[in-house]
Design goal:
alpha/beta, Rossmann fold, 2 domains, 7-stranded parallel sheet, 6-stranded parallel sheet, 15 helices, about 15% strand
Length: about 375
């Protein structure tokens, strides 16, 4: 059996990987190994490793790496701890292939260790562009360290090839989140209200605001501008999910907690909703607001609008449901007016998600079955003519 090691460091990433983990775990042709690190192991971020265990998956290794500091110094030191922990984990597990998704610093640490261990890497969601965050550079670095590539769109497939990866190793399978939407049985509105302890209002929004790691404007200013715009809304429920463990992330967390405490009649914050509750929330809210990739990748499948604030996701392919605005109160207010307008809501009825190809997990597993891992390590740089 081929030993496949999947590494996950955050709740959102695990949610996207869920069906791939499940399908690999059920396949007689693979021995699935699971390494959990980063935010999963932090009580501050919900200790979401417990959700993985509740889903019935065995965690083979837990790699502690997240420090209490979200300064640049703290994040860099966390990356170093991650490499040390991954060295021990990979040395013991000895996988034939490591599978990673995305662009976070936890995954960069894992890939750096695998590279030296001569373990081939399969990278999911490469080739994407997010110019407002240093995730952009991390994502492309992981692409160059990887040996198989599974992208979410043809444009991203072409970009991975443009980075010098051989076309025969790059597969466009669509967005991983589509598997969850197609295969999970979601909660209805009443079930969800009971599950999260939230009374839905006439209108409702799901809000996630992450640090913009390459922006010179402090996160505090941007978040307060968002709050002021939200305060202008009438009879609107606000469901917040916490930001990632990035630089300045804890400042945003503190502000959100304070805002929800002062507005407990309409606002509630969650460290982690988990995939079932999160997607069920997408199915019942009127829109998504913030700067999370989920508003671009998954939200269009629910035919709801997304207000994408600032530059964090700048460069991604965006459906017609995405309203782009600047990180100031006036721009956010205008975007909210557009979101709730009858004209915009009517246009959403015929919306198609550009990332929905369907069956991403099945396509990836089919490729892994057909691939000889022993031939992957040596790569040729593919030159565009």
């Amino acid at each position: 059996m081929k030993k496949i090691c999947i590494v996950t460091g955050s709740r959102a990433e695990y949610g996207l990987l869920y069906w791939l983990i499940k399908d690999l775990n059920n396949s007689p042709e693979f021995e699935m190994q699971l390494v959990v690190t980063g935010m999963h192991l932090s009580p501050e971020f919900g200790s979401t490793y417990s959700e993985i265990e509740k889903d019935g998956f065995k965690i083979d290794k837990k790699v502690e790496m997240l420090l209490s500091s979200d300064s640049s110094n703290g994040v860099v030191k966390s990356m170093g701890l991650g490499m040390i922990g991954m060295a021990d984990a990979l040395g013991e597990l000895k996988p034939d292939l490591m599978v990673v998704l995305g662009d976070r610093f936890e995954i960069l640490s894992a890939c750096s260790a695998a590279l030296i261990y001569k373990i081939p890497i399969a990278h999911l969601h490469g080739g994407e562009v997010t110019t407002g965050a240093f995730d952009e550079s991390i994502r492309h670095a992981i692409t160059k360290m990887s040996h198989l590539h599974f992208t979410a769109a043809e444009e991203y497939q072409n970009r991975v090839i443009q980075l010098g990866e051989e076309p025969k190793r790059v597969f466009n399978v669509g967005a991983m989140g589509m598997d969850n939407i197609r295969r999970l049985k979601l909660l209805d509105k009443n079930e969800l209200s009971d599950a999260i302890g939230f009374n839905f209002h006439k209108k409702n929004l799901l809000i996630t605001f992450h640090p913009v790691t390459l922006d010179n404007e402090p996160a505090e200013i941007q978040v307060k501008a968002l709050f002021k715009a939200l305060d202008e809304l009438d009879d609107t429920g606000l469901i917040f999910t916490m930001p990632n463990a990035d630089t300045e992330g804890r400042k945003i967390m503190a502000l959100i907690k304070e805002y929800c405490s002062l507005n407990s009649n309409k606002a509630k914050v969650f460290s982690s909703l988990g995939q079932l509750r999160y997607l069920s929330t997408l199915a019942v809210v009127d829109g998504v607001i913030g700067n999370s990739s989920s508003g671009i990748l998954e939200a269009p499948s629910f035919k709801i609008g997304t207000i994408n604030i600032g530059d964090r996701q700048k460069g991604r392919i965006m459906a017609e449901s995405v309203i782009q605005c600047n990180a100031n109160q006036i721009s956010i207010t205008k975007a909210l007016d557009c979101l709730f307008s009858k004209k915009f809501q009517t246009c959403l009825k015929d919306l198609k998600n550009p990332f929905d190809r369907g069956g991403a997990s099945e396509k990836i597993i089919k490729t892994l079955k057909e691939t000889n891992f022993e031939t992957l390590l040596q790569k040729s740089f593919y030159n565009l003519n």
